[in-house]
Design brief:
543 residues, alpha/beta, six-stranded parallel sheet, five-stranded antiparallel sheet, 38% helix, globular
C-alpha cells in the first residue's frame, strides 16, 4: 500500500481533485483495500497532508504524528488503530516519494535499526494497540510468515511498560531473548498441579508484583495445566490474589495450527481426559474467568505466490481437496539427489533421521575435520543449547546459522557452506550474499530481581553459552524448523506425519512451491488438524 501510494505521489502528485486521486488509488489497489483507500483519502480531506508537508514549528515528528492521529480519531470517530495506520502510511509514502533511489549503507547497528522499515498494516497497528492499551488479555495469531515475530520485536522495542518475554522451550526463549516458563516461575520440570504451587520469597514476590505485562510466545506448545499453574503462581505472588494471573496483563502469541503441546505419558493423557477438554492452552480453567481480545494477522510475507498460499491454507485448515494434495504431490521426486551448491535442507519427522543424514553427508567430504569447543558458564541447561557444545565441521559442510547477525548479513535459519577453516577462523559462503568471517556468539540466560530502593527491576546474567553460531544443516527436524524459512527444501515424512500441524509446519517453511521437493508422497491422512483448534478459532472470529 505504501509503495503504491508513493508511486502515485511521484507520478501524479496529490492534486486538489481528491476524487480523481481516490479513483486512481482505488484502481491500483483493487476492491481488497476499500476501507484503507477511503481512510487515506479522508485524511486528505481532513488536511492531514498539509500538516505532514508543512509541520508547525517547534514540534517533534513523533509528537506531530501522535497529534494528527488523535485529530483523525476524534474528527471521524474511527478506530484508533486505523487512524494511526492512516497517518503513518501517508508519512512513510511521502518520505519515500521524495527520497533518493540510492541510499548509503548504515555505518553501525544503531543506524541500521533506525532505517529498518516495518510495514504497518491495519492489522499490525490494531494488534499493537491491543498489546499496548487493551485492559484484557490478548491473543495474537496468524498463519506462518505473517509477521508475528516482527510485531513482538517492534512492541518490545517501543513499549515503556515492564514487559517480560517467555516461551515454552529453551530454544524458543533464546530466539526472543526471553526466559522459559519453568525458569521464570522457578517451577520443576515435571507436571505440576496448581495446588502444589507455593509462595516465593519476599524478595521474589516484590519482583513478580512489579510486572505489568507477560508475553508468552509459541503459545501453541503450552499446555492447559501449565496455564493454570501460572495463574495460581501469579495469584500467590503477584499484585492481586483475587484476579486471574494476579492482575497482570497476559499476551499470548502463536499459531495453534502449528506444533501442539506435548503429552508424553499415559498419566498425562489421563490428566487431560479427566480435567480438561484439550491439552491446548485455551482449555485452562482460568480462561473461564477472563476475556481475551483476539486478532489474526492475515497478510503472508514469506510466500508471494497466491497458488502456494492457498494450498498451505487448505492444509492448515483441514480443507485440502484431492486436487490440492495432487498439486502438492507434483513436487514428489523420490530419487532427487541435491548438489552441495544447491543448498537444499531436508526436514525430517525424527531427530534420529536428521542426525543420520548429517553424519552421512559429513563423512562424504574428504576435507579435514575440525572441532570447536564451546563454553558454558553458570546455569545453562545443555538440553537447550542452540548448537553443539563440541562442534565438528569440515570445509564444504552445509551449515545453518542459529543466531541473527547484528549487522543483518544473516538471520537465524540462513543456510550457507563452510568455505575455509583455519585454527580459530571460519569463513562461510552464503548464497547471493558472498563470504563472511564468522565470530563466536554468546547466548545468555537472564534472571530478574527487584531493587526495593530504586523500585526498578534489574536484569542479571546467570548463565551463558559461547560458540560459533552454526550447526550442520543437511537436515533438521520439522519441530526445530518452526519459526524458520528456506528457499530450497526437501521434506521426508518417512512413515508419515503423526502430529497435529506437523505437515503444515513442514510445507510452510518453504518460500515457493518450486523450491520444494517431496521424498514421500503426501497422503490425506498426513493432514492432521485437531478439531478443537478449529472450534476455538471460530470462537475467536465471532468474539
Amino acid at each position: 500500500m505504501k509503495k503504491i501510494l508513493s508511486e502515485l505521489i511521484k507520478n501524479h502528485g496529490v492534486s486538489n481533485d481528491i476524487n480523481n486521486f481516490e479513483a486512481l488509488l482505488r484502481q491500483k489497489c483493487g476492491n481488497q483495500y476499500k476501507r484503507e483507500v477511503f481512510m487515506l483519502c479522508q485524511a486528505v480531506r481532513e488536511n492531514i497532508l498539509i500538516d505532514l508537508l508543512t509541520p508547525p514549528q517547534g514540534i517533534t515528528q513523533t509528537a506531530l504524528l501522535s497529534n494528527l492521529t488523535q485529530r483523525l480519531y476524534e474528527n471521524l470517530g474511527i478506530d484508533k488503530a486505523l487512524a494511526e495506520w492512516t497517518v503513518q502510511t501517508w508519512d512513510i509514502a511521502l518520505n519515500q516519494a521524495k527520497a533518493p533511489q540510492t541510499q548509503n549503507k548504515p555505518d553501525n547497528k544503531k543506524e541500521k535499526e533506525e532505517k529498518e522499515e516495518i510495514e504497518i498494516t491495519y492489522e499490525f497497528a490494531k494488534a499493537y494497540d491491543l498489546m499496548a492499551d487493551s485492559p484484557n488479555s490478548v491473543f495474537i495469531t496468524g498463519k506462518a510468515g505473517t509477521g508475528k515475530s516482527t510485531l513482538l520485536r517492534h512492541y518490545r522495542k517501543n513499549t515503556k511498560k515492564k514487559v517480560f518475554l517467555l516461551a515454552p522451550t529453551g530454544i524458543a526463549a533464546l530466539n526472543i531473548g526471553g526466559s522459559t516458563l519453568h525458569s521464570f516461575f522457578r517451577l520443576p520440570t515435571r507436571p505440576l498441579h496448581p495446588d502444589e504451587v507455593t509462595t516465593a520469597s519476599v524478595k521474589r514476590r516484590k519482583f513478580y508484583q512489579s510486572i505489568e505485562t507477560l508475553i508468552i510466545d509459541e503459545i501453541s506448545m503450552v499446555r492447559a495445566d501449565m496455564m493454570d499453574v501460572i495463574d495460581q503462581f501469579m495469584r500467590l505472588n503477584g499484585k492481586n490474589p483475587d484476579k486471574p494471573f494476579g492482575g497482570v496483563k497476559m499476551i499470548f502469541m502463536g499459531d495453534l495450527f502449528q506444533l501442539p503441546p506435548v503429552v508424553s505419558s499415559k498419566e498425562e493423557e489421563q490428566l487431560f481426559t479427566e480435567n480438561y477438554t484439550s491439552p491446548f492452552f485455551f482449555s485452562a480453567k482460568v480462561f473461564e474467568e477472563i476475556k481475551i481480545d483476539s486478532i489474526e494477522l492475515t497478510k503472508v510475507y514469506r510466500q508471494k505466490e497466491q497458488t502456494f498460499i492457498n494450498l498451505l491454507n487448505s492444509i492448515r485448515n483441514n480443507q485440502a481437496t484431492p486436487n490440492d494434495i495432487q498439486q502438492i504431490n507434483q513436487r514428489y521426486q523420490p530419487q532427487f539427489d541435491a548438489k552441495l551448491e544447491d543448498y537444499y535442507i531436508t526436514l525430517t519427522t525424527t531427530n534420529k533421521i536428521a542426525l543420520q543424514i548429517n553424519s552421512v553427508q559429513l563423512e562424504k567430504l574428504s576435507t579435514k575435520m575440525h572441532t570447536f569447543q564451546g563454553e558454558i558458564t553458570g546455569k545453562f541447561d545443555k538440553g537447550t543449547l542452540p548448537t553443539e557444545l563440541t562442534l565438528s565441521l569440515k570445509q564444504g559442510s552445509q551449515i545453518m546459522f542459529v543466531k541473527n547477525d547484528s549487522e543483518g548479513r544473516w538471520v537465524n535459519g540462513t543456510i550457507g557452506k563452510i568455505k575455509t577453516i583455519k585454527k580459530d577462523q571460519i569463513e562461510v559462503e552464503i548464497p547471493n550474499k558472498g563470504s563472511h568471517i564468522i565470530k563466536q556468539a554468546k547466548w545468555e540466560i537472564p534472571n530478574y530481581t527487584y531493587n526495593a530502593k530504586t523500585k526498578l527491576v534489574a536484569t542479571e546474567v546467570i548463565g551463558s553459552f559461547t560458540q560459533y553460531p552454526l550447526k550442520l544443516a543437511w537436515a533438521i527436524t520439522i519441530h526445530k524448523s518452526q519459526g524458520k524459512q528456506f528457499d530450497k527444501l526437501i521434506i521426508d515424512l518417512g512413515w508419515g506425519a503423526f502430529a497435529h500441524g506437523q505437515l503444515y509446519v513442514a510445507l510452510s517453511r518453504c518460500k515457493t512451491l518450486e523450491g520444494l521437493i517431496l521424498k514421500t508422497r503426501i497422503r490425506p491422512k498426513d493432514v492432521i488438524v485437531d478439531g478443537r483448534v478449529i472450534e476455538f478459532g471460530k470462537l475467536g472470529q465471532s468474539s
